[in-house]
Amino acid sequence: MTEFSGATDPDRILPLLWRHRTARKATTGRPPRLSVDDVVAAGIAIADTDGLAAASMARVAARLGVATMTLYTYVPSRTELVELMVDDVLGGRRLPGPGDERPGPWRDQIQLYADRTLAMYRAHPWLSEVSRVRPPLGPGMLRESEYVLSTLGAVPVARRNTAAVTIVMFVTAAARQEGENAQLRRASGQSNDAWWGQRGQLWEQWFDVEQHPAMTELWNAGGFDRGPDQQAADAFALGLRLILDGISVQRDDRVAQLPDALNAHRDGLAGDDLAHPSRRAGQDDVAGQQRHDM
Amino acid sequence: MTEFSGATDPDRILPLLWRHRTARKATTGRPPRLSVDDVVAAGIAIADTDGLAAASMARVAARLGVATMTLYTYVPSRTELVELMVDDVLGGRRLPGPGDERPGPWRDQIQLYADRTLAMYRAHPWLSEVSRVRPPLGPGMLRESEYVLSTLGAVPVARRNTAAVTIVMFVTAAARQEGENAQLRRASGQSNDAWWGQRGQLWEQWFDVEQHPAMTELWNAGGFDRGPDQQAADAFALGLRLILDGISVQRDDRVAQLPDALNAHRDGLAGDDLAHPSRRAGQDDVAGQQRHDM
DNA sequence: CCCAGTTATCGTATGGGCTACGGAAACTCT
DNA sequence: AGAGTTTCCGTAGCCCATACGATAACTGGG
After folding, report:
1. What positions of strand D are covered by protein, i.e. any atom < 7 Å from a CB?
2. Region B245-258: what's the mean pLDDT?
3. Alpha carbon distance A173, A256 (integer Å)
4. pTM for the whole thing?
5. What is the rounded distance in angstroms from the CA atom of residue A51 to the CA atom of residue A186?
């Protein structure tokens, strides 16, 4: 299940998230045996193999060869540790930055984002255990937002953010499922097929054909022949394609040449409410405003 | 974070999930003071107000006026209790069944599903804490599958299930976010807007404009003026619309009258080419495994 | 009416989790 | 050498799930 820990103090977590920007260290006092990076890396390593719950303060400390309470000099609490782990992994995708080369047209760039994100959740399935609303506002998370937005330059600004949030939401949802699968596979030592097979008695003993005609019909027509994993992959591919198809209709450079049937959809795509930007003066106003990721 | 408990024994959990079909009770021995329904209801009530973690065995028992260990006569472990809670709530949407009246054309029926699901996650935000892969195979979950499939009768069988899984995946993802929001709002006593406002120093102190030109540009253009909750709502509306638009193209009764530009998209929808090449490669690593949500 | 059989109740104990607190240790600088 | 500062970490308190075994409460048979 998804962990919800306490709220974190921005004055403590933000400097930690952006710790690589501030390199000043204390010159006095007992020198530290570890670094925050060490703690984060240990947490990730444990979570990768045994799940987020296994990355307890005690176990992270043991892996680093220190006492449990020692960790609290590096990290205010386990909540912050998890946030740091998440942002670290998010940044680990190494999505192309502002000056970097891009893999072709915008759709391929989105596909790169999707591929990397899927791979990230496969490598770090415990990400699925962490909520991504009110995400860690660190470099890793911001890099994601920047990349996705940068691929949508051809979408009118009034609709660009909605498009980005939609893509991120869908991709994250699919990746999260993938991560949950990996997690369950490891924890149960059982594949999805095995899990379903073990529950075959459901159909013989409990399933009521009368109550489920649509399922029964589709079953008889072979509509469930593809296994659960393939179904999920199909759904991900289809959903992403349809979303990108729809977004491409919003792109400035294509609107003109499309048939009326499609332009009809275009209207009100983001609703009237999206189209009235009360323009903000400068980026200095940024304080106090909200933006969001997903 | 998402809870992952141990694997449950189908021989124990299936009879519990379908307990209302089998009404025979023991005639001998000490009569029970409670019922499984009582325990499930107590768990839901506590989780509704204080989150899933608060629905501990001790607290559920206390609410029912019995000792903690007493619960274990009704439920094998907390894992099963949570599964029962989930299926109960899933069924609580009371989606129209086989004979029941439907609210108009298929799109409206999907919208009903989406609305009810959103409402369910708002009323029971702890659902967001529970993984929905390898879901409880009870009446509540099966009713959902049946309903969604029943709305897609006009989609060719070869593509129907993929369409259903895609819709469920997207709607569930959006609803889950909504639930996480509700949860965080209550746990932190802080709205989303307040949370972002409290982190205004991010932009002044840590945000690097050079590294994030696309975000900066969009910010200056007013692209982030809508608050986080509105952004999420916009994304949900857009994503669902685009997915349904795409699926409607697959419907038998509409294919004929659509322009070629759209029919081009139609091809390969359920086919082998569904997965993007690079993605498929990565996926084979995971071979042998997962099914998903739905 | 009593007792065997059966089922439900629940007290205790074990082992895990997070972290507040406060003292000890290790370093620099004067 | 001593003061100041920072890190290290042992103890203890409070939460959790649940294995085990004793006890309570009921039914049906004699």
Report:
1. 4-11, 15-21, 24-28
2. 66
3. 33
4. 0.86
5. 9
